[in-house]
Structures are given as structure tokens and as C-alpha cells.
Amino acid sequence: MQFTVIQRILGILLSLFSLTQLPPLFIAWWLDEPARHAFLVSFGIILFTGLLLWAPVRKIRKELRLRDGFIVVVMFWAGLGMTGSIPLILSDTPHLPVVDAIFESLSGLTTTGATVITGIDFLPKSIQFYRQELQWLGGMGIIVLAVAILPILGIGGMQLYKAETPGPLKDAKLTPRITETAKALWYIYLSMTIFCALAYWLAGMTAFDAVAHSFSTISIGGFSTHDSSMAFFDNPFIEMIAVFFMLLAGINFTLHFLAWKHISIKPYRYDTEFKAYLTILVVVGIITCVTLFYKADYADPKELIMDGIFHTVSIATTTGFTSAQHYLWPEMLPVMLLFASFIGACAGSTGGGIKVIRALMLFRQGLREIRRLIHPNAVITIKINKKPVQEGVINAVWGFFATYICVFGLLMLLLMATGLDQITAFSAIAACMNNLGPGLGGVSQHYGDVSDTAKLLLCFAMLLGRLEIFTLLVLITPAFWRK
């Protein structure tokens, strides 16, 4: 293990992260908000810490190895959660306790969208912006952004990219050079954010709200500048815009890149995961709307359909915006929507969950086993995009799924041991591991009432979800530390 290389990279990344304090600092200074002191002190602490790590090993010039990349990714995300909480601790409003501040910071950076704060409407604009900014930076992954910059500083980035990017097909690159790949992803991400902000603004949001909500929409984060989330605007056009961009953000960004490069929709038409993604959303949306029609008390059918579609897309893509009290909906709807978040968005998107491609492989593997019972000697291959999937990939998906279930069950039991009821514990772990945000029961509106121990467990669940379990769990295996 090259600890000096790891220390140098962490120092550089933390120094870069300190720059994220400057936009909210400028807003606080412009509006003469007391929070400007919190952001100024936070900027100094994070920058000093980064330079303190970097300075003693600044002359180290070695290539990063894969195992080093795992350590950098995990330590950096954990470090971001702690250092990103500093303004929330130092600020007079909301002035959160340490555990609450870390929870809020990690929730933003992992694009979970779970919050411990109430009275969000009355927060200083700088704090409101900061929460949204954390989600936007976490959406595509600060590591991927750093991959585009690190080569300039003499650090190779491929190991970080492999450790950070989600999905079973993550070794596929858009361009021959990893730096160009990272830049391509960010150009697409930034362009979508700009178009989303413009659309929100034209639909009736203020410029501030439009930018803030574009950050959390494209990142599939779900934070809002209002306690009532999208219900605050009471505007069907804004909800339709949100649905459109949540759908886009939940698609593999490789498809966006290929569609832009070739100026064609063929990459979408012929992608198996994309078609499965749309199919799942359509089926869940129809079930939701039909159940609401027969069981819920809606005077306006248009409002019923809009609420059904909006919450289907928001929860299934793990965004977490709300426009109604969906946790009070009748029958099985709240639980069904929560189950949809387990599948989540596509691999290579900003969404959470186990990813559509994995769910699709598990489903086809199940069908294959059924067919093998009928035809024991048949050679049956599983295909994605009309190409056979290697057995090693399928085994890895099964391993991921089995590990996910075991970790989920263990964390749920631990959460119940802190005093939470079954529904609250189940939905809280699901919402945090899937990076969704809103849960059911005691966490349907916010997480401020759960204990500090439960919050720390949920922070761990958020990191597990954001880093797709193995990236974090691999560090606790003895084999990882053997030479």
C-alpha cells in the first residue's frame, strides 16, 4: 500500500473541495448573512487540512494502484461528509449538532436527500444553496471531476475512476483517455443542469430556486429549498419539467454521450437497460395511477395522474422529490414505490438502487434456471444488447445482490435495536442505502427525531449505497491488506 501517494491525493482533493465554500460564502456576503463567517472559517479549515496533508509528500511521484484507489475513494467520501458539515455546525441557523451536521452533509454528497432540518424555507440563502451544491457535486462524483484534473498534477486517474463509477459494466470508457471520459461526463452533466434551470425559471420558479432545484434534479438528490418540496410551487408545468429531467438523469450517461456524438437516438433505441428502465417506470406508474383512481379521494383526474407519474419517477429513480403526502396513500402504494427504488436508475447515471442492469440480469438468470429445469442439457446464454454476458459478470451480480440483502438485513436489525419500529427501520435503511431520502413511518418527513446512533448507522448506509457496497466493504476484508 502506497500511503504517501494516498496522503498526497487526499490532500489535493481536500484542497480542491475547500473551493466549494466560496459560492455560498459569496452569497452570504452579498446578502449580508451571518453565515458568511461560518463559510469563511470552513474554507480556511478545509484548505489548511488539505495543505497539511499534501505538503510533506508533495514531491512523491508514483502511479496510483487499484487498491490505493479504493482507499482514496472511501476516505475521501468519508472525509467530505465530515468537513462538509463544518458550515452547518458553525452557522447560527441551523446550527446543527455534530452528528446531525455530518448526516446532512453526507446525505447531500451521496445524493440521498434525507434531511434532519425543519424550517428549510427560513434558512439563510447561502445555507440553502450549499445543501443543493453538495448534491450537485456528489451527483456525478467529485472523484470523476478530480480525474479530469489529477493528470495535470501528475497523478494517474484510471484507478480512481474504476473505484468510483457504478455498475457491472463500468470498465467501458467513452473515449480512449480517462481524462477525456471524465470531461465528457461533466460537459453532459453541466449542460443538463443549465437546461433544467432555464426550464424551471421559464415555468415560474425564481432564478435562485431554479438553479437550486436543477442541482438536485440532475444529481437525483431530492433536496429542496422548501419543506414541502415541489408541492410548494403548486405548478404542474414545474412537475412535468422535473419528471422529464429526472428521467434523463436516471439514464446511463454513456447513452447521452453517444446520442450527442452521433446526433442520433439509436443508442437509446437499441439499449436493453434503457428499455427495461422505461418499462419498469411505465408499469409502476400505471399501477399507481389506477390504484389512486379507485382508492384515493381525488376530485381532479389530472391532478391524480400528475401525482401518480411524478412520484413514480421521483421515487423509482431515487430522486426523492415529493408533491403530495405519498406516504399516506392507500393500499400498497407507498411500499411498492419504495420497492421500486431498490431497482433504482440505470448504471452510469446519477441515480441509486441496485441499478436496472443488475435487476435485469437477475431476472434473466432466474428465467434461465427455470428453463434449465425443463431442458437440463440446453446451453442457454444471457444477452444484454444482443451480446452474451460473461458468466463472471453474472456471478458478480449475484454476489452483489446477496451481499446487499445481508447488509440490509443486518443494518435494519441494528436500527431496530436503537428503538425504531419495523416500518421506520425498514424504510430508513432502504431510503439511505438506495440513496432515495424520504422513507415511511417516523422518517416520512424528516430524520430529526431518530437517535444519534441511528443517524450514524444511516450515514454508513448512505456511503454503502453511494459506493455500491463492495468499494467500502472490500476495505474490511483481510485479503485486501495482505501484500
Q: Could you please describe the fold and organization of this structure?
A:
By secondary structure, the chain is mostly helical. It has a domain at 3-177. The protein has helices at residues 3-17, 22-30, 35-54, 66-83, 86-90, 98-109, 125-140, 142-149, 158-164, 178-203, 207-218, 236-249, 253-262, 266-269, 272-295, 301-316, 333-343, 356-374, 391-417, 422-433, 452-466, 470-473, 478-481, and strands spanning 383-384, 387-388. The chain has a two-stranded antiparallel sheet with strand order 1-2. Strand 1 and strand 2 form a beta hairpin. The radius of gyration is 22 Å and the shape is globular.
Give a short summary of the structure.
The chain has 483 residues and is an all-alpha fold. Helices cover 64% and strands 1% of the residues.
